[in-house]
Structure formats: C-alpha cells, structure tokens
Automatic annotation (TrEMBL), chains A, B:
It is a multi-pass membrane protein. It is found in: Early endosome membrane; Lysosome membrane; Recycling endosome membrane. GO terms for cellular component: early endosome membrane; endolysosome; lysosomal membrane; monoatomic ion channel complex; recycling endosome membrane. Intracellular channel initially characterized as a non-selective Ca(2+)-permeable channel activated by NAADP (nicotinic acid adenine dinucleotide phosphate), it is also a voltage-gated highly-selective Na(+) channel activated directly by PI(3,5)P2 (phosphatidylinositol 3,5-bisphosphate) that senses pH changes and confers electrical excitability to organelles. Localizes to the early and recycling endosomes membranes where it plays a role in the uptake and processing of proteins and regulates organellar membrane excitability, membrane trafficking and pH homeostasis. It comes from Chrysemys picta bellii (Western painted turtle). This is Voltage-dependent calcium channel protein TPC1. The gene is TPCN1. Belongs to the calcium channel alpha-1 subunit (TC 1.A.1.11) family. Two pore calcium channel subfamily. Pfam families: Ion_trans.
Amino acid sequence: MQWWKQPAIHSSESPVERSSYLTEPDTNDGGSYDIVNDVSSPATGDYHSQQRSARHNWEMNYQEAAIYLQEGENNDKFFTHPKNAKALAAYLFVHNHLFYLMELITALLLLLLSLCEAPAVPILRLGIYIHATLELFALVVVVFELSMKMRWMGFYTYIRHKRTMVKTCVLLVQFVEAIVVLVRQTSHVRITRALRCIFLVDCRYCGAVRRNLRQIFQSLPPFIDILLLLLFFMVIFAILGFYLFSSNHSDPYFNTLENSLVNLFVLLTTSNFPDVMMPSYSRNPWSCVFFIVYLSIELYFIMNLLLAVVFDTFSDIEKRKFKSLLLHKRTAIQHAYRLLVSKQRPSGISFKQFEGLMRFYKPRMCARERYLTFKALNQNNTALVSLKDFYNFYEVVGLKWKAKRNREHWFDDLPRTAFLIFKGINILVKSRAFQYAMYTVVAVNGIWILIQTFMLQDGNFFPRDVPWSYIVFLTIYGVELLLKTTGLGPIEYLSSGWNLFDFSVTLFAFLGLLALAFNMEPFYFIVVLRPLQLLRLFKLKKRYRNVLDTMFELFPRMASLGLTLLIFYYSFAIVGMEFFSGVVYPNCCNTSTVADAYRWVNHTVGNKTVVEEGYYYLNNFDNILNSFVTLFELTVVNDWYIIMEGVTSQTSHWSRLYFMIFYIVTMVVMTIIVAFILEAFVFRMNYTRKNQGSEEDNGIVLEKEISKEEMASVIELYRRNYAASETAPLQKVIAQMDKYEQTSMLFLGRRSRTKSDLSMKMYEEEIQEWYEEHSRKEEYPWQDVFPSGSHMLSSGLRQRSQTVI
Amino acid sequence: MQWWKQPAIHSSESPVERSSYLTEPDTNDGGSYDIVNDVSSPATGDYHSQQRSARHNWEMNYQEAAIYLQEGENNDKFFTHPKNAKALAAYLFVHNHLFYLMELITALLLLLLSLCEAPAVPILRLGIYIHATLELFALVVVVFELSMKMRWMGFYTYIRHKRTMVKTCVLLVQFVEAIVVLVRQTSHVRITRALRCIFLVDCRYCGAVRRNLRQIFQSLPPFIDILLLLLFFMVIFAILGFYLFSSNHSDPYFNTLENSLVNLFVLLTTSNFPDVMMPSYSRNPWSCVFFIVYLSIELYFIMNLLLAVVFDTFSDIEKRKFKSLLLHKRTAIQHAYRLLVSKQRPSGISFKQFEGLMRFYKPRMCARERYLTFKALNQNNTALVSLKDFYNFYEVVGLKWKAKRNREHWFDDLPRTAFLIFKGINILVKSRAFQYAMYTVVAVNGIWILIQTFMLQDGNFFPRDVPWSYIVFLTIYGVELLLKTTGLGPIEYLSSGWNLFDFSVTLFAFLGLLALAFNMEPFYFIVVLRPLQLLRLFKLKKRYRNVLDTMFELFPRMASLGLTLLIFYYSFAIVGMEFFSGVVYPNCCNTSTVADAYRWVNHTVGNKTVVEEGYYYLNNFDNILNSFVTLFELTVVNDWYIIMEGVTSQTSHWSRLYFMIFYIVTMVVMTIIVAFILEAFVFRMNYTRKNQGSEEDNGIVLEKEISKEEMASVIELYRRNYAASETAPLQKVIAQMDKYEQTSMLFLGRRSRTKSDLSMKMYEEEIQEWYEEHSRKEEYPWQDVFPSGSHMLSSGLRQRSQTVI
C-alpha cells in the first residue's frame, strides 16, 4: 500500500502535547485520547465546536513548534522562550525583519551621529540642537525596542539576560547625557559615546559579531597569561637596558626607566628598530647582543607562543561551540516534535502537521517545496516522519528544489539547423583548446599592459584616442562572452562564479572604453581595473582554486571579524577624539624626538622654494574619519611610535597608555584573525585529505521523485483546507508532467556546503558519542528546560489570547 | 625453571646468517646446522679450530649488527652500508667522534676564515698568504675526509649520494680559487665562498640542520605557489598605484612603475607605512582606501594564508618523517636480529649474543647496565629475546640504570639527633608555607628593584657601598639555598631544573655582590642580572610551567633552526660583502630619498655644537660581523628599506634584488620557525589533552629486579669469556646485596621523554597499520635492500679482513 493514498485529513486528531499558549483549560486530561478519537461521542456535545477547538489547538502547536525551531536555528536559549500568549505576541513582533531593520537603523544612526557631533567631519557638521534631538529620537526608539523585548521575555528573564541589562544601563547613561547636552547646549566630554557600539552588537543581524566577541573573550585567559610573561620579560630587559645604556648621554631611548620601558614596548612591535639600537651600537658594537636577545625572546619566541596558545584555544572552542550548537538544535527539534505528534499517531508527524508547521516557520515557501521537504525528511517513505528522520530538519529545510531538467542544453527544442550551430558552439567553449587559448590571450594582455605601463612617460596616461590594443583585447573578450552565453545558455553561464567574474570584468572594461571614447574623466579609474582580468589565470592550478574557494568560504566570517575590529575602532576613535582632537598640527611637536615627522617648512634654497613636509600632522584625531585612518596606521604598527610621541609631546605622558592599550587590543583581535584563518584553512585541508577519494565538492544535492497520483492527493489536501490559490504551483507541476507525458517527475534539492556540514563529516564518530551522552543526560529534555511545565498552561492571560493570534 | 640457571655458554653455536665481512667461504651451506650442532662430529676434524672459527664468525656478526643499529639510529640509508672488510675499516674510521670533531673543526675553520679575509674585521685581519694557506690546509683535510668516505661507500654509492657530490664540486671550486688567490696574491670577487656552509651542513653533528633544510625544501612548493599569488596582486596594485598617484609630483613613491612595485613590496613588510601613503593622503583623503585594501589583502590575508599553508604542510611532513624514521629503525632492528640469532636457537637472542652486540654498539656501557638492558628488553622473562621484544631496542637502550635507593633521604643513616634536625629541615623546605614565603620574598625583591631603579637619578648607578637591601635579600636566598641543600641532599636538590636555576641566579647575585664590594667595574653587569630571580614566580601557575617546559623541550630544535638561519645569513653576508662592502659611509646617500638617515652633521647653532647623527651608515657590509648585524636588521624588516635605498643609491638599482631575495628567504625560514613552534605547541597540547588522566609527565621509568643467583650466573659468564676487570661492577652489586641482606635488588631505568615517545603515543593506532603495511610490502626486507645478497659474501678482500678487525 502506498502511503499517500491514505486520506490526508485528520483534523479531528489532537496533539499529544499542547502548546503553552492555549487558554482553554484541558479539563479531561486523562480521557481526552478516547474522546477525540471518537469524534461523534456524545460526551463532547457539539461536533463542530469540538473540531474547531482541535483545529485551534493545532494552529497553536504549529506556531510554538515553529518558534522552537527558530530558537534552535538562532541559538536562542530556551529560557527566553515566550511563556504565554502575551509574550507570544511580543515575540512575534520582535522576531520580524521589519523590527530587525529598525534595530539596525537606530544603531547605525546612533553610531553615525559621531560624524556630525563636536569634532565633526567639516562638511557634515550639524548644530547641537539638531544632533542632540536626533540622538534623543534614536534613543526613544531603542527604549521602545527594549520594552517590547521585556514584554516578550518577562521581567525576570529580562533581568537575567546580561547583554540586554548592559544595553539598558548604557541606554540610561546616553539618555541622561543627551538631555544634558540639549539643556547646556554644549557638548561635554562624552567618552560614554564609545559604548554606543553595544546597540549595534545587540542587533539580530550582528549575531556573527557577537559570536566573535564571545570567542575573543573566551580566548582571553590564556592570552593574558602569555601577555604577562611577555610584559615580565619586558620589565626585566627595561631594567637591564636602563643600567646598560643610560650612561650614554646621546642615547635618548634609555635615559629613564620609563623611557626604557616605553621603548622596549615599541621595540616589541619592531617599529623603532634599528633606530633604538643605533646610539648604543655606535658606541659599542656588542650592545647589539642586548637587542638581538630581546627580539629573539620576545618577538620570535613569546609572540609566536601567543599565537600558538590562541590557535590551540581557538580550535578547541570551535569544536565545543559546534557541539553545543548541534545539541541545542537537537533539543529544539525534540521540543517541536512533541508538539507536532498527534495522539492518534504518536510515532511520527504526518504531512498535514508538517504543512501547518511550515506555514509558520517559512511562510513564503510554496506548497511544492513544502511537500518535497517533507519527502526528503521522510527517509523510509512511510506516511509519518519519525523523530529520527525529523532530526535532519535543519539540513533539509535549506534545500532549494528544482525540477530536474529533461533537456541537456537550452537549445534542444530549437530547429535542427539552429541546434547544430549551438551544439557546435557548446562543444567549442567546453573544449580545452578554447580555454587554453583564452588563458593565452589573458596572459598576453597582462604582459601587454605591464609593458605599456612601463613604457609610459608620466603625464599622458589617458590618450585622447582609444589605443588599438584595448579595442582588440576587448573584442576578443566580448566574443568569448558571447560564445559562452550562447553555447551554455545564459543561466548555466552565470551560475558559475568564475564566469560571473569574467562577465563583470569585461563589462567594466567596456565601460572604461566608453569613458575613454567619450572623454569622461571621472570614470577613468575603470580603465585601471583591467589587470584584474589576470586573476582568471589562477583557475589553471588546483591549489589556487582551493585557496580561492577557501577565500570565498571564509569571506563572511572574515567580514564579521572585520566588523568586530571596526567596533573596537569606533570605541577607540571616540575616546581618541575626546582627548586628542586638535592636538597635532604642522610644526607642533618641536620638543619631542619625532619633531621631524611633523615639520612643515616652506623655505627658499637658492631661488627655489622647497616645501619640507613631515605629513604626520595628518595622522590626527580631528574627526572620526581621520581617527579611523590613524587607528588603522596604529594597527599596522609601523612607525606608530611617531604618532604616539607626537600626541604625547602635546598632552601628557599618560596618553601613551591609550596607544599601548590600543596596540594590545588590536593584537588580540589580529591574533584571533590569524588563528581563525589558520584553523579554517587547516580544517579544510584535513577535510580534503580525509575525503580524497570522494566526488568534487559542489554542495549538497538531494534527489526526490514525485508521482502524479501523489501530487493529486496533495492537491486534494490543500483544496480541502486552504485557499485554491495555494494549489496553483502544484497544478503547474501536473500540467508539466502531462506535457512531457510522464507519470512522475524528478526534483533536485540543492544548497551550498556550510562549515557545519564539514564539521559533521569531520567529527562523525564523536557526534554519535555526544548524542548518546546528551540523551543519557536528559531523557526528557523538555522537562529540564521547563521545570514548571504544568504551571505554564495556566499562566496565559485568557481574555486576550484569542485576539492576539 | 628459572632461565638464568641454564649454562650461559654457547660459543659452539653458529649464527643463522653470516656477516658480509666474513672471508671464509661457507662451503657446507645446506648441512651446516647439523654439523655445528654436533660439535664433536668427525666431519669437521679439529674441534678447536671449529670453535675458534665460530667465535670469529660471531664477532663479525656482532659488529655488523651494531652497525645496522647505528644506521637505524642515525637514519643512514642502508645502501651506504659497508659492503666488505675494507669498507668496514673505512666505516669504522669515519664513524667516530674524533673524525666527527675533525670534520666540524675544519668546517668551522673555513667559515671563520671570512673574519680575516679581504673585508676583514679590523683586529683580525691576516695577510693573504696566511689565510690562503690556512684555507688550503683546511681544504686538504676535507679532501682526506672525502676520500675516506669514498673508501667506505665505494665509488658507485659515492656518486649516487647527492650531498657528497655537491660537496665535492664545491670543494673543487674552492681549491682552484684558493690556489688562484695564492698565485695572484690578491683576493678576487669570491662569491663562491658563500657555498662554504656546505662543509658545516655536511658534518655529522649538524644532522638537525640538514633535517631542517630538507623540511624547508619540502615546504617550498606550496609556499612558492602562494608567493606567486602575493606577487601577482602586488603587480596589479603596482599598475593601479602608478595610474592613480603618478600625476602627483610631490609623491616620489609612485612616479615610475618600478618605484611603484618596489614601494609596494616594501609596503608588504609595512616598513614604509604610513609614509608611503602620506603624499597622496594629503592630496586626497580617500586615497587611503587603496592602501587599506592592499594591506588587508596582502598582509592580513595572503600572508596568513602563507603561514597556514606552510603550517599544514609542516605538520604533514612531520608525521611522514616520523613514520619513515620509525620504519627505518624497524628494518635496522630486523637486520641486526637476523645476524644475532643462532642456528641452534632461531627463536631469539641470548644474553651472550646481546652482550657481544653491546660491546660494539656501546663499548662504554658497564656489564651491569648491559644485563639490565637485556632484562628490560626481555618482556616474558625467558632465556631469549624474541624479535618482537627486540623491536623495543631503541626505547630501552637509552635508559640510565640506578639501584633503587632503600633510603628515602640522604640523612637516614645519621645519628638520631642529626636525623631529626635534617628531617625537620626537609619537612620545612617541602612545605607550602615555605615555598609561598619564598615567592613573597622574590616578589618583594622584584618590586624593590623596580622602585629603586625608578628612583635612581642617572649617573650614580653603582654606589660605592653595597646597598643594605641587596645584602638582606641575598642573605635570604643564601639561607634558602642552604636549607634546601641540607634538607633535600645536594643530589636531589640539583636534579630539579628549577633548583639549578635558583642556584645559578643566587650564585650570580653573590658574584655581583663581590664585584660591588671589591669595586670590580667590568663585572657590574652581573648586578644587573638580579631581576632574573623574578622568573621563579612563574612556577606558581600551571600554564607557565607548561609553557616553560615546552620551551625547554623546543630548545634543541629552536637552536638548530637558529643555526639554519645563521647558515643562510653567512651566505648572504659573503655575497653582501663582495658587492656592498664600503659603499655606505656618513653623508653618502645625498641623492636618495633616505639621505637623512645617513646624514652626519656637526654644526653650530647659536653657541652650541649640535651633532646630527643619522647612524644608518653603521648598517653596512664592511666586515662579516657588521654584515650579520645588518642582516638581522633586515630580518626584523622594520625600516629595512632605508638600508636598501642607501645601498641602492650608491650602487645600481639591481642591488634591490639582493635585499628582496633576502627578505623572501628569511620569510620562508621565519614562517617555518613559526609553523614549527605552532606545531610543537599544538601537538603537546593535544597530547596533554589526550592523556589527561595519566600521571605527571616526568620521563620514561622502568623497574627491574635482579636476584642474587641471577647475578652470580652472569658473573660466571663474564669470568669465562672476558677479563676479570669487567666483572667488578657486578661484584659490587652482590656486595651491596650482602650488606643490606637482600636476596634481590631493584633497579630503575630512567630517561627523559622525547618527541618520538610522544608521537608513538599520539599515533598509537596508525603505527600498527604502518607496521602491517610495512611487513606486507617486504616480507623479507633484507632481501630488498641487498638484492645481490649472495654476491656480497664473496666480495670481501680476504687477505686484509683478518688484520682489520
């Protein structure tokens, strides 16, 4: 018996477990099974009201199950799970892209305000009234957001949630300060603005940043230990250096213990080397031993040890994080499963229930995809999805389903002559000869550009008439593009990342040609991007493909790490602006050892005016954009001591603390970035090594076949329960089957491979152990999570629940 | 039956396999078993001559087995195994610490010659006659060494051995050049001197350096791939930068494509940042985007990728190397085993045979230790060591055996009162309170020194009278040292590395005190070492102990990596001296952009003489010591472009190639050093994590008990076969047993844990697979190694073999 022939309607069933948002008290708890089973039983009186209530029950369960699954996906802890109907309403309000967007925009507004506040970017300067009012407005929005969150979580959970509490405190401080600014009509020293980043960090969309921050904080303890070792050696060497070199009066670096310490700190970043050594070296050549030993110990040994320790901690944390996420998802699935199973069929979830769930979980998924997802979950092709099958929910739900095409090429339906032409082009563009010919063209083009640029005399970069070589190469690329698009079909052509890259580079080159031809000077920079074509050559070698693929895989994580760094930058920029804005200017630091770097002299030698520019006065904290550039220069650490000494000479020597702390913070973040790249790369390499024999790695693909009868029964189900419009995509499938005279149709589900998939394969054996351990620990995990399960059922506000849902 | 009661004499046995150095043809190959078994058989005629010949056979076998084991230990390939008696003599001559030392000294002499040659260190300058003669002498010694090696290996093997061939070629070139120098009486451009390092690399004692070089070369291919990626992006950005910034005439960095490339290369090392950005940044603030993007891609992404790729390759190579070493040792043991097994007892090696082997393998091991090693190998306490047991040879042979002391403390034998006093001291120094009190003293001392140094006005560092704090703290340390030595006994006290450290630091402090008290100024630097005491505080935390232990474990490898780096330095120093010696001097580079750094002006401002020193002229290649310092500065990479530009402005712009190649080479070596530290550290961490439950890691310890009867039978064996003097240590053991009235005695074998032991435990499971694979591949590995086994037996020079051994 094929399972889909069973009547798919069981709205008279009732769930095993009831949603915590249900308001009607479950009076006949013990006997409910029998009563519902026998729907016409007189005990319940009105059959229709019974059925309506059951349907309402189910809707509630679907929604709560969807929420559990969402929590599992987002790694939201279950103790923030909405506990009653009121909380549910708030939850739905808060978990919503519009709300997320509002959060993000408010946070960005608050951050961007520092462009216009006191030491503002000149062209963006705003009056105090205006920016303070804007700030107040944004803060009020944040208050609104927080109050909605409190409504969702309830007061006690809200208090327990650390991040939200910190946010509330910051909010309060900001509020008070914004009002003070408005009242006094002048900006005071507002270092607390540095805390504004917390609004951004708390955004739903910045989950990756939060994860990074957590990982940074988790890596801190071992990091600090090694840092202390580093500082300790620094102190010992500072004392040594002071004793050894302070008798040399031409040595400004070791004349006091403080100088000695500061200069050894700078030496750790090597940015004053060899200058710091020179005065003593010129006196006694053997003094270089001191510096060589110091650098060998500190820079080449302990700094690498630091990286090793962080890398080690990092890989460990990555694994533990993967484990906890995996188990969290599993628990979420268990919760959802309990809510979806009906009393009549406690062994699994039927398609009806699954459909109801997906209506809440992914409202925009079409009926065909829902059904395919259900089939993909349902591994042994029965009517019900068991818990074991349901555990694959997250892996399956992300698949994008497409009918497997019967046609090999896009031109298969064309008339014979056209077909042959296109087939010829297809064979041509897929041939090795064509590919290598193109590589040769690219290489020649590259060498051409190089020689051309080398031969250029300065001045006449952009000739009035377009050079013929430009046109020739562009024509070749254009023809290639045309051939590939026609030979492969536009969809297949653009589905490869490399082709997309070719396409955009060629497009840019064409735009550059237009810019040259029509003399549009501001667009000349496009011409300059031509050498990027050369990147195509890297397809040739397997290692490069690997590296570039890894690069693309790493990109989202790298971007989030970059954002994390930017958040630190922001805080430091605000502090820097408050303390150091306007302190450096041309010829400012004549008393310091780095005066030369700030000198700006306009003097006459003979009859020529010579401008001596030290330029370093440009590395200032005069507005937030300048601060960011200055902080980037500090991150690169070369010559950062010039900036530090310049500022120090204009303020107090405590300013050095700011620069040193910044160095240590960026060192932490940078070390973690390095550790992350190392970890990701080594992980991928090990993965490749482990799966050497298996197929090329091109994402997860699943194949499912659907027969006509099956489709019809699904349509029947939809027709009975929902609006006719929803069956449209299903009808289309049937129409297609009719057209090609098939009795069944193949669908392919596809998604790209994520890190989690790789980890699943890498830790295959351990995962089983984790599962066993997990299930031993909590035989009934839902009881652990809600120790007061029975209480919740009655905790809802009865009179309002009806209107909310 | 206890096995040692068997008569230990079986000199009438004959080995299963005969040494390849044996000269008498084995005429009765098929029936030899029976004949030898029945020693009195009339077929052989003279019984005594038979026995003498058998003993001679055995001696030969022992020696060849010992050579196999040595080859296994040193990872010498078996194709260099001496094949006949003449080769054996050469082998024994060459494998000998005196010969090794000669090799080393010759190599060092050749290397050190560059201190005295042409651009010599002033005080070491020698006449051309003298140093050329010295060189010729050293080269002649090398010729002698090589001829001995050729004698050992035979001509064909010699030709096949790549390293030796390269060495021979270099030797030839050096010889010709040395003679040319002597004839012309002037040094020509001798860049080939850079190849002198090969003599050092080829030394037996520099095995670790050879391994490093091999590992560097093996890591090169992936390294070069990523390097090309790096250079490729550099070229693209150079073209971009040239187009964008060359219109700015105040920007000297991008005015030609060559400058653009060079400056981006330097920017990769960040050493001209932010200066390289400043001219364009001052014109248009948005130009910083170019530099930020470049640095993000090149420095923060691809450079880290480089590290990741090297790290990955490195860990892979480490594992493969461990595997091949392990299997090589195993094969060596199999070879040796075959030579030691007798025809009468083919299932194992008896002590007599083992003793014979050890006489060649470790001549200085005493009889007691030999016997204990045999017992340790012999795991199931039978008379014979089977092949399976014999596989542990290398693990066991390194153990140092000591009788397990019956006394807990050194003072147990003292009279009651003294015992109580010492016992009290012992308890005191082992108490936590005492330890923490000492930590407090050290900490207070550290803070004291810091404050004292901070309060110092310059000038009066070393007061005429010794400060009281110095005396107080030194007294405390002295008392601690005294208490510990008396409480623990000097041997136990000094067996801990930490105590040794305490001891030496306290000794230094005492010497410093003497220096102060007797006003010996040249020794004042000892006073300065006092803060090293603070290192003791790091015992407090487990992580530091771990880190410092790892540091000590890594030290030999680090030293060999450092030596490898020095060898590269040497080559570059020679090349640098040949091309750039004397090109930079004060005020030399006025035409370059870095003129300031070389300026040395002595001018008068008002009525004060101001010396403006650029100092960079000190970073030159004027002699080999200066070159080394300059190269170290180039390694640190900060401001290296100043050195490069200075030299370039005085020579040609091709000089930049030298500096860039040096940068890339040091980058390779440094990346490998980082990868090595990472690998070693992560490996150790994983090991610790894997063995979390097990005991503290304090080396390998084995316990063996020897009874009196057993000892007596061993003595009997020695008395019959060897001189009476050899039984002395055994007799002493018996005497000791008698003294304490024991019937048996416990011995402890101890050695420190090596990386190989850790690897053995880490790869436990895989090792079994390797073994199986190995034994499948070569059922009889000795047949593979010597395909012409039968030939060798007759290849010896018969008439000489007798005299050689």
